[in-house]
Amino acid sequence: MSTLRVALVQLYGRPTKQECIANAISQIRQAKDRGARLIILPECFNSPYSTAEFGRHAEEIPRGETSQALAKVAAELGVYLVGGTYPEREGTRLYNTCPVFGPKGELLCKYRKLHLFDMDIPGQCTFQESAALTAGDRLATFSIGSLKIGLGICWDKRFPELAACYRQLGCDMMIFPSAFDPYTGPLHWDLLGRARALDNQMFVALVSPARDPTTEYVAYGYSLMCDPWGRVLCRAKEEQELLITDIDLKMCGEIKQQIPILRQKRGDIYELKAMK
User: Fold this and answer.
1) Annotated active-site residue in 17, 20, 32, 43
2) Quick count: other Cβ atoms within 10 Å of Cβ 2?
3) pLDDT digits (tens, 9 = 90+) for 151-169
4) Which residue is catalytic, options 59, 113, 157, 165?
5) Is 276 an active-site residue?
6) Exposed site from 135, 177, 219, 244, fewest CB < 10 Å?
């Protein structure tokens, strides 16, 4: 496998969870029709992005309604499906969780957001995920052929150590479903995606909900894919949009050979290690 066709699915929210799921599945089918093998949904695609709503929309993974629908369509179409994120309930705790389903509908892994979005820029954006959610405590990866892929969620991409740990685990791609805010978006969105890609010589996908100014929390939009050179391969605008891009997997080995920073890290001076 020298190339991989990837779909970034930027979605509008819908009035009910069932309508959100139906909208996502319609776009997943279109992505498959256009040849995508890996399909990525945005953060919190089946629920309003609101601490008051997370509990009402939460479900068990993989037994819940959303998971079952995504597993079914992944198996039907034979694709790898990154289910964006949606609120997960386990006992009394809620998580912001990204599940990944394989081409047989199997749950390959799930990732719970490690760094919760607690930000306060007065007059611009204030949000406190920790008021409703519990932070995850481990990394998650899956593979498509020889391509190993790591998962993060939105706020996680502000922490370069996380992507660096995935790089140590052998990942050549990172996926961040991300409901970024429209104030810091113009300042940091492209910069963070390109920086994580360049720092770690990997592909980086940022997949956002579409922008809807009528909602309590307004997402930035502009889903994008960066290559290991830190270049933006494709970028959406603000509305619902399906991005399709082919990534050249040979580039990963070539750039590591040409610019061998990963071999030149000074383990005798500094060290980074994933604990689990």
Assistant:
1) 43
2) 10
3) 999 999 999 999 999 999 9
4) 113
5) no
6) 135
* 148 flagged as catalytic: no
pLDDT in tens, 68-105: 999 999 999 999 999 999 999 999 999 999 999 999 99
Query: Contact at 8 Å (CB) between 48 and 13?
Result: yes
**What are the beta bridge partners of residue 39?**
7, 81
CB burial of residue 66 (10 Å; 0-12, 13-18, 19+): buried
Nearest to 125 by CA among 188, 56, 45: 188
pLDDT at residue 273, as a whole number: 85
Instruction: Write down the pLDDT at residue 122.
Output: 85
Tokens found for residue 89? 């309930």
Active-site residue identified among 20, 44, 98, 154? 154
Q: Is 193 helix (H, G, I), strand (E, B) or coil?
A: helix
Sequence-ordered list of residues with C-beta below 8 angstroms from that of 158, at least 6 positions apart, any chain: 115, 188, 192
Tokens 């009394």 locate to 92
